[in-house]
From TrEMBL:
Residues 22-41 bind DNA. GO terms for molecular function: DNA-binding transcription factor activity; transcription cis-regulatory region binding. It comes from the Bacteria. Pfam families: TetR_N. Keywords: DNA-binding, Repressor, Transcription, Transcription regulation. Residues 1-59 form the HTH tetR-type domain. This is TetR/AcrR family transcriptional regulator. The keyword Isomerase does not apply. SUPFAM superfamilies: Homeodomain-like, Tetracyclin repressor-like, C-terminal domain.
């Protein structure tokens, strides 16, 4: 039952917002009593922590899955963006924005965990892109990762509407890719923009 509550709460938090969804809402959606939820979670904050851990695990799984699919490095970034867009498309407000505004301590924990995973994935993507000729050999890998991460997380943490965040995140991805690409990488970028427009 605990896992079912976490799954339903995660779905509702991402769709409707961490602040607006109440324990009553979750209980009503699941046709269970609020008392049942409190048997597993002493308060809403603990449930939000569990929900964000579920999202964190999903992010890790997506990164692993994408690396196994054999996409080229530029294509891989667009595929990841497409996947996350699918997860968050029903949300009106950005989940990270909501967390930062209403649950800052949980937000800090989430960011700390995500940063390590994102850096690991981006480093792999950049090093492979250089090796395969998509990114320039003189690319400063560490600073490129830091710049791109800082831009994207600033957008998702400070942009209220999810659709606006997604548009800005696409612009950041294009900016990042253009900055480090070889002609081969730019050709693939144009191809991805045509496919994903």
């Amino acid at each position: 039952m605990k896992e079912k509550i976490i799954a339903k709460a995660t779905e509702m938090f991402l769709k409707l917002g961490f602040k607006s969804v109440t324990m009553d809402d979750i209980a009503g959606e699941m046709c269970i009593s609020k008392k049942t939820i409190y048997k597993f979670f002493c308060n809403k904050e603990v449930l939000i922590e569990e929900a964000t851990e579920t999202v964190h695990q999903t992010v890790n799984d997506v990164f692993e899955c994408m690396q196994e699919k054999g996409y080229n490095p530029v294509e891989e970034n667009f595929e990841i963006r497409k996947y996350f867009k699918g997860i968050f498309q029903s949300a009106e407000t950005s989940p990270l924005y909501q967390l930062r505004k209403h649950y800052p301590e949980i937000y800090e924990t989430v960011i700390s965990k995500e940063k390590n995973e994102c850096f690991r994935f981006m480093q792999h993507n950049l090093e492979r892109g250089i090796a395969e000729g998509y990114y320039r050999t003189d690319t400063d890998v560490e600073n490129s990762i830091d710049f791109y991460y800082t831009i994207t997380f600033h957008i998702s943490s400070n942009t209220a509407l999810e659709k606006d965040a997604q548009a800005k995140e696409l612009a950041a991805l294009v900016y990042h890719t253009r900055a480090i690409s070889t002609p081969k990488g730019l050709e693939e970028l144009e191809k991805q923009l045509a496919i994903n427009s």
